[in-house]
C-alpha cells in the first residue's frame, strides 16, 4: 500500500504550489488570495524514490467549527488521521507566527512523523530565515522555494529517510496474464453554485469529504475522490466548483475555478448534473447539460432538495416540459429525485449512473444497424436536395463512448438538419438509448465523372 503524505500549514504559506511541484503537474488552483484551497485534494506522485499519495489540505486556522474556516480545519484534521508523514509548511519570508507555534504543539501531540518545510526560502537570506523553524521542536527544517523550484532535491531525500525502506514488491504477473479490469468509472458532479454538489458527494461516499454549508461557492477547485460503490466497482468522483453565468464571472479566482470544472467535465465519462428542485432547471443548467452533450458525455440529472418541494407533481411536470423543449437532443435523460442532505433517494443515483454508462459504452452490430437504417428509410425517405436525390446505402458503428453512427451514401453529407435529427431519434428509440448523446457522421460517395 502506498504511503500517504499530507501537506499542512496555515493559509498562504504555499502548500498548493508545493503540492503541484511535488506532483509534477498543475492540479491545485494557486492564487495570492489566502484560503483558496478549501477541500482536501490528492494525487499520486513519486517522492524520494517512493510511490506516494500526496494530499493538499486547507490552511489551518483557529476558528469556530460552524464557520467556513472551522469546517476547513476539521477537513484538514480528518486528512491528518490517514497520514503516514506530514509536511508542515511554514513561510520563511514571514517568519514564525503564533499560529505556526500552536499548530506545531498540536502536531507533536499527534505523535506522527513530521517534516518541517520552510517555504519561500529563495535567495541569499532565504536559508538563514528558514533556520528559525528550528524553534518549533520538530527537527531540522528543509529550506525550499516551491515557486522557484529550489531545495526540492533535499526535500525528496528527507521524505525518503522519513518513510524508511520500501517494502518488497509482489512478483510481476506472468506473460499472457490479463491486466486488472478494475478501472474506475470517471464521474464529474457539476451544476450551479449551492445546488448541493458537495453534499451529494459526501452522501455517496458516506463520509464528510467535502466542506459544505449554506454559503454559495464553497468549492473552488475540482476535487477527485476514489471509492467503491455498492456494486463493488471502483468510482472516481470529481466534485467541481459551481458554474455561474459567464457575465457574472469577474474574479480571476472564479475564472480558474470554472476552467478546472470544464477540465473535469472533459475527463469524465458520466456527468451528474445537480439541479436544485426548489429553483427548477434554469438556462444555466441547460447550458451545462448542452456542454456535456457537446463533449459526448453520458448525463444523469440529480434533482436535489426533493424533500423540501411541496408540490412534487408540478415540479416534475415543469422539469419534464423544460427538458422536452430545450434538451430534445437528450430525449429520455435519466432524472433521479433525491435529497443529498437527508440521504433519501441517493441509493437510486449510482444504479442510474451505471445504466447510463452501459448505454454510453454499447455497440450495435452492423447487421442490426443496417436493418434499422432500411426501416427508417422506408418509413421516411430522405428529401431531395437541390432537386437531386440523396441515396443512403449502408451504416456502420465505428465507435462507442458515445455511440457513433457513420452512414454512407450519395450526397449523404447534404442531408438537412431535420432529417439528421429524425435518424438520431429513430436510432435512439429502436435501440433503447434514452438520454444518450448520439454522434451521426454522414459520408458521401463522389462520382468521378461529375466534373467532366
Q: Can you offer a commentary on this structure?
A:
This protein is an alpha/beta fold and 452 residues long. It is built from twelve helices and 15 strands. A six-stranded mixed β-sheet has the order 2-3-1-4-5-6, with helices on both faces. The longest helix has 16 residues.
Short key terms for the protein model shown above:
Rossmann fold, six-stranded mixed beta sheet, 3 domains, 452 residues, GMP Synthetase, Chain A, domain 3, alpha/beta, elongated, disordered C terminus
Reconstruct the topology from this structure.
Blueprint: E1 4-8, H1 15-23, E2 41-47, E3 50-56, H2 68-81, E4 85-91, H3 98-110, E5 114-119, H4 124-130, E6 142-143, H5 152-163, E7 185-191, H6 197-205, E8 223-228, E9 234-239, H7 252-267, E10 270-276, H8 283-294, E11 298-304, H9 312-326, E12 334-337, H10 349-360, H11 366-379, E13 391-399, E14 404-410, H12 417-430, E15 439-444
Parallel strand pairs: 1-3, 1-4, 4-5, 5-6, 7-9, 7-10, 10-11, 11-12, 14-15
Antiparallel strand pairs: 2-3, 8-9, 13-14
